[in-house]
Design a protein that fits this description.
With 561 residues, this protein is an alpha/beta fold. It is built from 18 helices and 14 strands. Helix 7 packs parallel to helix 8, helix 8 packs across helix 9 and helix 15 packs across helix 16. The structure holds 3-methyl-2-oxobutanoic acid and zinc ion.
Length: 561
Amino acid sequence: MSKMKDGAKKYIPFQQIHLPDRQWPGRVIEKAPIWCSVDLRDGNQALVDPMNMEEKLTFFHTLCDMGFKEIEVGFPSASETEYEICRELIEGGHIPDDVAIQVLVQARPHLIQKTFEAIKGAKNVIVHFYNSTSTLQRKVVFKKDMDGIIQIAVDGAKLIKELTDAYDGDCNIRYEYSPESFSGTEMDNAVKICAAVLDELGATAENKVILNLPNTVEMCTPNTYADQVEYFIRHLPGRERAIISIHPHNDRGTGVAATELALLAGAERVEGTLFGNGERTGNLDIVTTALNMYTQGVDPELDLTDIPKLRRIYEECTRMQVHERHPYAGELVFTAFSGSHQDAINKGTEYMQTSGTGKWEIPYLPIDPADVGRQYEPIIRINSQSGKGGAAFVMQHAFGLTLPKEMHPEFGTMVKHKCDQLGRELSNEELMQVFREGYLEIPEKYRMTEYAFSGASSRDGRIRFAGTIEADGRPHQVVGEGNGPIDAFFRALHHAGIDGYQFVNYSEHAVSSGADSQAIAYIQLKTPAGRNIFGVGLDHSINVASVKGVLCAINRAESAK
Ligand code: KIV
Ligand code: ZN
């Protein structure tokens, strides 16, 4: 019997609502919602050390730069600090003309009064008032029936309307009402209280009120929240008088999913925070939600092109850490360690380069890291799980060395051996060192001390190689003629007593540009014992690089004997 079986009995399963003709499953997200950041309020109130003035201002400016047009800046009636921050934003001229600050307040008269004092002088303000409506809170906290709860909201709305009418100044004041714990409220009660608030505020299609439907504590599966949102919208009288907003939290770890499904259900506005900071398990993560849209071809209408910078500011201001596996933003999310993944990324990258496809088509990378400012990431990192393709990818992308495919297994084995030996990941430099030790800094039984090619322009096109090869320290004059430099060199080798090797294949490319350009040649030989072996030659002359590669392969084979 499971150890959890008895414990599970004390929980009440969440009740689904009845919506058999739900429409949302057949829809897709086609445009970005109105985003509202609640970092400075919901996010801030969940911090061990709330942000100080300077941090809040930095964060505020960052949000403006990202393109947020609605930003909840705090709860100015809740404390002197909150009040002062609101004043500084207004008096310090920090708020762009096209940005509305949002101020949260409970539907209680003295707090509403104080909130109106706090917003004096601002250009665009959303007064966001709320009271809790859930079945559980009514039972255990307020001990009021639904009519009593509706009365609180309506009284709040009435006072807010009066204070707006009496407001002395030029301010565009809009309203937002939240039936807090919406998802824990009977849907007909949620509709009823919101309709009463719309009536009291005199909402019209031209003067809409934001109705915010919080998933204050996420207690149900995302499809259930979507059903609730769709039900609410379909039953709200005069739905055109409202902008439907959602405010998901993440208690079940499905805040992003709940948001996406609620958008399908008709939500038009989303409240959340960067990287999902917020009470308990956090608010909705706007970064993830927006980039999910982006990877589906939808403009998120937020600037997320420099995630490392956003992450740095976020971490400095909140003293929270973005997890290494956090979607799009974590340290490790663009890194593949697994061999088969590395191989597929390698092939995808090649495909992107050769096919001319205008689309992003790389397996295991749902987004182009460069789009979010992650272009310098080591996409592929090398440990003992990595495969031959991964090592080749790093050699190509970090050092510009295009190892031929046939060579990947041989080099991959060297790399794996090194990882096993060290018991850890290899840095790119260490990988390069494996390459050097494996191919360029090897014991040389045979050493070429002099060399010259001639005859390339002769009528028969044959090439002559002449040089000196030391075999175990003893010099041999060698000459050979062939239909190319490698062929000529091979024939010359016979004079140094080197026989039985067969040429299989070769490839070459330039390794650096400009005056100091060098050539690298990769040579594949078959040893007298029939084994395939590779050699690498590096030189300013491509002919010399090739013959150095041949000798390298032979020396490697000899030292392995
Ligand atoms: O989570 C919540 O319900 C809230 C409200 C105050 C909107 O933060
Ligand atoms: Zn909240």
